Amino acid sequence: MTDEFEDRHGFPPGANEVRLAGHADQAAARTLAQAGIAPPDMVTFYDTIGDVTWADVGNGYFVDPAGDVLLRFKQHGVVHVSAERKAGGLVIGSNGGGLSYVASPGGAIYRTRTASLDEPDHERVADDLRQFLELLERSLTRFVANGDPGCL
């Protein structure tokens, strides 16, 4: 993906990696689990994966480290993913274009419609973390094949 990046864009590629979890990531995931605010599949994910950074796929795709998710929760609380404000989720990443991804308590993944987390309604992009990660993988594959990062 990055072989011809600098020739095409005039600057070197950024970070594009899936980083394995370290002890701090795993401890933050356990704290999220103990607080009952993270879907179980997120906790399992963070036990192995520290974060995902694909800075050069379109505007970028990012799944934040568990420590960042926990800090954001401590500072700002949950993000309400529906106008009824019944379900509060955790911001787990972004698309690099200003939109954030929010994991609901039930595990569904939502995307903000604007750069603001205060919007009352978010778009559901995946039924669970597994489906979300599969969509990310498809975006990467499509981007490598034809330069189109998709609409995730």
Which helices and strands appear, and what pairs or packs with what?
Blueprint lengths: L4 H5 L6 E5 L2 H12 L5 H9 E6 L6 E3 L2 H11 L2 E2 L7 E7 L5 E4 L5 E3 L11 E4 L2 H18 L6
Antiparallel strand pairs: 1-2, 2-3, 3-5, 4-5, 5-6, 6-7, 7-8
Task: Please give a handful of descriptors for the protein shown.
152 residues, alpha+beta, 5 helices, 8 strands, 36% helix
Task: Describe what this molecule looks like in 3D.
This protein has 152 residues and is of the alpha+beta class. It is built from 5 helices and 8 strands. The protein has helices at 5-9, 23-34, 40-48, 66-76, 129-146, and strands at residues 16-20, 49-54, 61-63, 79-80, 88-94, 100-103, 109-111, 123-126. Strands 1, 2, 3, 4, 5, 6, 7 and 8 form an 8-stranded antiparallel β-sheet that branches. A hairpin with a 6-residue loop joins strand 2 (49-54) and strand 3.
Find the count of extended strands (DSSP E, 2+ residues).
8
- Radius of gyration, Cα only, in angstroms? 16 Å
Number of helices: 5
Instruction: Report the major sheet.
Output: 8 strands, antiparallel
Helix content estimate: 25-40%
Query: Assembly state here?
Result: single chain
Coarse morphology: globular
Could you give the order of the helices and strands?
HEHHEEHEEEEEH
Summed over residues and divided by their number, the pLDDT gives a mean of 88
As residue ranges, the low-confidence spans are none
Beta-strand percentage range: 15-25%
* Separation of the first and last Cα atoms: 19 Å
Question: Which structural class do you get from the secondary structure elements?
Answer: alpha+beta
